[in-house]
Prior knowledge:
This protein has helices spanning 2-30, 38-42, 62-66, 70-79, 83-89, 93-99, 103-109, 119-122, 136-146, 163-173, 193-209, 229-239, 256-259, 296-304, 306-315, 325-330, 392-395, 412-443; strands at 126-132, 152-157, 179-181, 215-220, 223-225, 248-249, 260-265, 268-275, 286-287, 293-295, 355-357, 363-364, 373-374, 379-381, 384-386, 402-404. The chain is an alpha/beta fold. Among the domains are: 1-31; 32-90 and 353-444, no CATH class; 248-330, no CATH class.
Amino acid sequence: MRLLKGRLLLLFLVLSVVVLGSLWMLNLLSQHKTGWDPTYILGYSWLEYTDADDGGEDVYNCSAIVQGEKEALAEAKLLSTSREFHKSVQIPNEYYINATQDCRKFRKSRKYIPFPLSQEEEDFPLAYSLVVHHKVQNFERLLRAIYAPQNIYCVHVDKKSEASVFSAIEAITSCFPNVFMVSQAVNVVYAAWPRVQADLNCMADLYNASTKWKYFINLCGQDFPLKTNLEIVRMLHSLRGRNSLESEKMPERKKWRFSNAHQIVNGQIQGTGKAKEPPPFNLPILSGNAYIVVNRGYVRSVLEDTRIQALIEWSKDTYSPDEFIWATIQRMPGVPGSTWPNHKYDMTDMNAIARLVKWHGHEGSQGSLEAVYPECQGNHVRSVCVYGAGDLQWMLEQHHLFANKFDIDTDPIAVHCLERYLRQKALAELRERYWRIFCYERLK
């Protein structure tokens, strides 16, 4: 009898500690700045992705795939060739149009993060430009992966896009106060000026919409993050105001792109046969790519600096200006976060953190001394790897913030497993953070 009473007393004490600890946690969290909802945070398990969330995506082992286990990768490869599997995981555009009629239900069912996961993230908001022209499901899963209520997002949908694409994306953006459609959309032409103009229009909208964001990141619909929002924030903090983008000496084989004039004819870019004048202010033209990570001051310079405005005008009849204009601006003295044009400051895409891309010409087998990275495990489009599930383990070992390209129509497993990995990691970071707070307070 005495033993039973002792056990009951011990059970009562344990329960008391749990209840008091929970009440203390509620009180602690409720003291945070506006935007933190302790009832959501303590019940955040509903934000975890489960096998029941996405149709047929419960038939493979994401943990084993991310760890590179050969048997799991072989099964994923086989599954990705199945027409029935692809059909089971596709989400039609009409779903988004209908589901967003009830925004609250849509956000909850799609498990968007409704609160900042840390004070650190809340104090360091980011601005995103997303340029899209098709594949709504790709876009929505990208938005869900990078979404945080303290960030701000501008979405540019190509004016040539199908009506269902525009309607679905417009419906999705309407469900979030910090996500909006660009004020002025353009007809995007591959390798021509309108591709840059799309980002410029979003830059201006983002700059005018909020004074709080710290860094600008531009994406396309087939990008996907390799880091959680907290990891991105910490990596940007470590830049100490610097920008991170590819910017290096222009190869001789590419100089024709800006030394000859071009024009758009019937939706395609072609040369005019006329030579261009040298760049304004004798600016050295550097080589880079379309995707950048830059601070707010860089964006302000793009919008206001007379040198950059002259460069923009000069670039409008060049070929693929997105692959030199940001890189050139990055090396202009006086631009916040920039570096000098001296070759010692050259930055390759592998050293910058903006974007991880596998180019076919730089791939090689394991052990190759000339290869930049291992062979693509998916397929290639215009010499760029469209990642497969077999690329995930290698990608997650890299320091880049984002990777390109992903395509749910080609390999939905790669997107889903990366998406699940990042969500699990973000929630694990949250658990660990509050457990440390709890333990620290109990030991005081």
